[in-house]
Please model this.
Amino acid sequence: MTPSTEDRRHRCGHAATRAARWLPAALALLMAGCASHQPIDPPAAAASVPPAAAPADVPQVAVQVRKAWRFDADGIRFDNLLPAARLSGVERLGEGRYRIDIAPETEPVNPSAWYGFRIHADAPRTLELRFAYAHGHRHRYVPKLSADGREWREAGGDEYRVDDDGVAHLQLQLETGALHVSAQPPFLPGDFEAWSADVAARLGVEPRTFGSSVQGRPLHVFEFGAVADTDAPVLLVLGRQHPPENTGTQALTGFIESLAADTPQARTFRERVRVLVVPLLNPDGVVEGHWRGNANGVDLNRDWGPFAQPETRALRDLLDARGIDAGRVAFAIDFHSTFRDVFYTVTEDPSRAPGGVLHAWITAMQAGFDIEEKPSTARSPVFKNWAFCRLGAPTVTYEVGDTTPAAELDKAARHAAQSLMALLLEPQPPTAVPECPHFGVGDSHRQFR
Model:
């Protein structure tokens, strides 16, 4: 989401491997602050699936070419042949020195400068990498390193630096074999599916497909709680509209784990409130290593009104099919990541006033955590504005810092769920669809706030 100037670094511990018993691995993953997956190479000749035609007023996406860059005299090879990889070019600058070129899927784009690639070394050697970004973008993410694509660590201070010009440098002591370098440890559609299936199974429900992405990947939802009660209030939870935003996913999983817990509060909550969870709305963007958009290069969080993209359109249609319309949603929360912890809210939302559920929830969160609220007028076609203007819901975009420590992130997410359960178990005044005269006015595809 929209960046700030604050940049707090954290150390990333060893992540749990993805195994048949997903729950212990998922909990370890959250506490580690990293995601894990079993990397699978696409076929050697594979390239990204060409995107479907985008509307004429949307910049066309530059399809990433999947390939390897060989420097046989040095015994070094680079490639982007893994899901979530992003690498546009490699240039040898001298003995043991290489420039890594990274370009986004489209321009202009929010500066979520994602990268991901693999280095293969024929023998141990020292390597220095210099990161170079197209269109003047600046480096954002501290590199994460892995020998196997499952256990990750953050590059240390003796390995990574950003010079006075904002150029990032990575000094590596390679062993024989492969090293994965990524902006964040990838959390892929299969990881989302495994986590969702585990949580859903413990609650006696099943994830379901409600649509397909541009490239044909399934979009999944799972519902729990008072699903059979057509009058029950609804908690709507959405995640991963933007591909790089791993810390937002970690917060979403902790939040949902608390709602699904075997505690008196959570059991009572599930008897009274219906929860609908879409943890991954942009699977194509994640797999393609996009900075911001779907396979058409469109920011899905600027499509809540135009509904020009199949992903947002499918979720809108799902809510319509479930009868979740104006007045039914007691709270809507959309998880993202940015440079620091922020709650984006709607200025006109009456629940922000004292006595309102959003005011009470933010107060409870700020009592224990350093999270700034930033309200804005409901103008742009982002999810929170649509949820407020069309569903009348108290709504928040929950932004998690890129470098918020894993333990703090998890503690805040679980406290967020517990605080919200306490509030939603109290009788809530009826809501009405507000007047939003400015909603959707202006450029629907604008990339920045």
The first helix runs from residue 22 to 32. The two ends are 9 Å apart (CA to CA). Residues 35 and 186 are 6 Å apart (CA to CA). The mean pLDDT is 88.
